[in-house]
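I am writing to request your help with a piece of structural work I have in hand. The matter concerns a single protein, recorded as an amino acid sequence and a row of backbone structure tokens. Could you please explain, in whatever detail you think fit, how the structure tokens follow from the sequence? Thank you for your consideration; the sequence and its tokens are set out here:
>
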Amino acid sequence: MADFNIDVDPAAVGLDARRLRRIDAHLRRYVDEGKLAGCQVMVSRQGKVAHLSSLGHADLEAGRPVETDTLWRIYSMTKPVTAIAAMMLWEEGAFELTDPVSKWLPELAAPRVYVGGPAAKPVTVPATEPIRVWHLLTHTAGFTYGFHKVHVTDEIHRLRGFDLGAPPGMDLAGCVRAWAEIPLSFQPGAEWNYSVATDVLGRLIEVVSGQSLETFFTERVFGPLGMTDTGFWCPEPKQGRLAALYSAAPHASRPVRIDSVGNAVKRPPSWLSGGGGLVSSTRDYTRFTWMLLNGGEFEGARLLSPRTLDYMTVNHLPGGADLASFGRPLFAETRFDGVGFGLGFGVVTDPVAYRTLTSVGEYHWGGMASTAFWVDPAEQLSVVFMTQLMPSSAYPLRTQLRQLVYQSLVD
């Protein structure tokens, strides 16, 4: 079993060790120039670790280096976990993708859609069709995030206390009830917009399964996959392994530590965010990618059928559109040209339009603190990248990392 140690000669799986070292040299410059405190990247092929880099510091101020067991806030890399969990219930016949979510979340039975006016007094109309499970999985429900700051509905979210988090003390059920009172940004199914849709999906999982999202994840996903360091918060015995969270500071000599945000994961959360709440390790998330690469199964634990996973990782946007043509122009965890969206994942449909070396069908996502992963079935490749720098748009780490990984493939 591949774990933290490099357990295969890169040449045995078609990778050039000398070229792989370019990854370290490139990322080392980010650390040496004070752009990143530290980072970690694991490159696996055919389910074996061929390259592992641990660079810089997990905690600059304490002088604590990045170690193989460092813990990271993965933020929106939580979303694919929630999507997998939802589709596990779908495979059991718990719902259809076309079902209105109001069957389980009645507060969403009569959504209204913003058409004009200021945040204090928006003009709305009734939704022309219900919000369906498929809309949640594809970010086409009409929801948004307060931190986008590009639309009036984003401002309404912030006015209600939803920016990077939720109002103090509010649980997930309360969040969904509050979001139900905020106008949608557009008619369900009309556009793609990165949003709290996955958090709503997490609440749907709770109601359908009769378990908290934390319990469902632990019993049905993390336990079977051996993801022993992944959860919604970092308990005290593990906090010495938790990386500090930083903000990009273009005119400073080093990133700026933001404990006001980073310390939130040191205590149990009031709400379980299926859209961005998890802490994990490179090892744990790599195991998750191995399950994906292996058609829904890892070390005897099958979460999904290969056919379900194949269905999730094709482009579901209407007419085969990419995010550039069907999405809203905003901060994102991925480039938009040549990338569609499946059920919980960005999916590459055209590497030429994407302007990045990769394969058709490669699927991926990232997190707000610049973490990222991708799975390439055509190359039997998975890559997990961890760091703790906000925002994720500060540097082009994700596309550069693809360049460096793919140039090392020589078979």
